[in-house]
Amino acid sequence: MIQKIFIWTSPLPLLIFWGLSIYINQFEGWGQWAASIILLIPVLLSLVMALMGVVLIVCAKKKQGPVANLWVSTVMAASLFLYFLTKGIVQELIKSFG
Questions:
Q1: What is the CB neighbour count within 10 angstroms for residue 83?
Q2: What's the pTM value of the predicted model, to 2 decimals?
Q3: Contact 74, 10 (CB under 8 A)
Q4: pLDDT at 46
Q5: Which among 70, 89, 9 has a CA at the least distance from the CA of 45?
Q6: Could you report the per-residue pLDDT of 19-62, keeping only the tens digit for each?
Q7: Distance of alpha carbon 25 from the chain centroid
Q8: Vertex 53, ends 52 and 57: CA angle to 5°?
Q9: What is the dihedral of CA 89, 91, 92, 98, to 10 degrees?
Protein backbone atom coordinates (compact mmCIF):
# COMPACT_ATOMS: atom_id res chain seq x y z
CA MET A 1 0.00 0.00 0.00
CA ILE A 2 2.78 2.45 0.92
CA GLN A 3 4.63 1.52 -2.26
CA LYS A 4 1.60 2.35 -4.41
CA ILE A 5 1.15 5.69 -2.68
CA PHE A 6 4.85 6.45 -3.19
CA ILE A 7 4.71 5.49 -6.87
CA TRP A 8 1.68 7.70 -7.49
CA THR A 9 3.08 10.68 -5.57
CA SER A 10 6.63 10.53 -6.93
CA PRO A 11 6.05 13.27 -9.56
CA LEU A 12 4.87 15.73 -6.85
CA PRO A 13 8.22 17.52 -6.31
CA LEU A 14 8.54 18.23 -10.02
CA LEU A 15 4.93 19.34 -10.38
CA ILE A 16 5.08 21.59 -7.31
CA PHE A 17 8.36 23.12 -8.51
CA TRP A 18 6.84 23.75 -11.93
CA GLY A 19 3.75 25.39 -10.43
CA LEU A 20 5.76 27.56 -8.05
CA SER A 21 8.08 28.60 -10.88
CA ILE A 22 5.09 29.80 -12.88
CA TYR A 23 3.84 31.68 -9.81
CA ILE A 24 7.22 33.34 -9.18
CA ASN A 25 7.60 34.37 -12.83
CA GLN A 26 4.57 36.63 -12.39
CA PHE A 27 6.62 38.93 -10.16
CA GLU A 28 9.13 41.46 -11.44
CA GLY A 29 12.65 42.32 -10.32
CA TRP A 30 13.27 41.95 -6.60
CA GLY A 31 9.87 40.30 -6.14
CA GLN A 32 11.12 37.20 -7.94
CA TRP A 33 14.24 37.12 -5.83
CA ALA A 34 12.29 37.51 -2.58
CA ALA A 35 9.68 34.88 -3.50
CA SER A 36 12.20 32.35 -4.77
CA ILE A 37 12.75 30.94 -1.26
CA ILE A 38 9.51 28.98 -1.65
CA LEU A 39 11.25 26.91 -4.33
CA LEU A 40 13.14 25.23 -1.51
CA ILE A 41 9.95 23.39 -0.49
CA PRO A 42 9.83 21.07 -3.53
CA VAL A 43 13.60 20.57 -3.46
CA LEU A 44 13.48 19.41 0.17
CA LEU A 45 10.39 17.31 -0.62
CA SER A 46 12.42 15.70 -3.39
CA LEU A 47 15.19 14.81 -0.92
CA VAL A 48 12.73 13.35 1.60
CA MET A 49 10.95 11.32 -1.07
CA ALA A 50 14.27 10.07 -2.44
CA LEU A 51 15.25 8.79 1.00
CA MET A 52 11.82 7.21 1.39
CA GLY A 53 12.22 5.52 -1.98
CA VAL A 54 15.55 4.05 -0.97
CA VAL A 55 13.99 2.65 2.22
CA LEU A 56 11.11 1.15 0.22
CA ILE A 57 13.53 -0.43 -2.26
CA VAL A 58 15.54 -2.01 0.55
CA CYS A 59 12.37 -3.36 2.19
CA ALA A 60 11.09 -4.73 -1.13
CA LYS A 61 14.42 -6.43 -1.82
CA LYS A 62 14.31 -8.12 1.58
CA LYS A 63 10.86 -9.49 0.74
CA GLN A 64 12.01 -10.43 -2.79
CA GLY A 65 9.32 -8.18 -4.25
CA PRO A 66 9.43 -6.24 -7.52
CA VAL A 67 11.54 -3.11 -7.35
CA ALA A 68 11.58 -1.78 -10.94
CA ASN A 69 8.66 0.61 -10.37
CA LEU A 70 10.20 1.76 -7.11
CA TRP A 71 13.51 2.53 -8.82
CA VAL A 72 11.82 4.61 -11.51
CA SER A 73 9.69 6.44 -8.96
CA THR A 74 12.66 7.10 -6.69
CA VAL A 75 14.72 8.52 -9.54
CA MET A 76 11.77 10.68 -10.60
CA ALA A 77 11.23 11.95 -7.06
CA ALA A 78 14.96 12.55 -6.51
CA SER A 79 15.59 14.20 -9.88
CA LEU A 80 14.92 17.74 -8.66
CA PHE A 81 17.27 17.41 -5.68
CA LEU A 82 19.93 15.69 -7.81
CA TYR A 83 19.68 18.45 -10.42
CA PHE A 84 20.35 21.20 -7.90
CA LEU A 85 23.06 19.17 -6.16
CA THR A 86 24.85 18.57 -9.47
CA LYS A 87 24.42 22.21 -10.49
CA GLY A 88 25.95 23.37 -7.20
CA ILE A 89 28.89 20.99 -7.48
CA VAL A 90 29.61 22.05 -11.06
CA GLN A 91 29.49 25.73 -10.08
CA GLU A 92 31.92 25.12 -7.22
CA LEU A 93 34.28 23.21 -9.51
CA ILE A 94 34.17 26.03 -12.05
CA LYS A 95 34.96 28.57 -9.32
CA SER A 96 37.80 26.44 -7.98
CA PHE A 97 39.45 25.42 -11.25
CA GLY A 98 38.07 27.89 -13.79
A1: 14
A2: 0.88
A3: yes
A4: 97
A5: 9
A6: 999 999 999 888 888 988 999 999 999 999 999 999 999 999 99
A7: 20
A8: 120
A9: 130
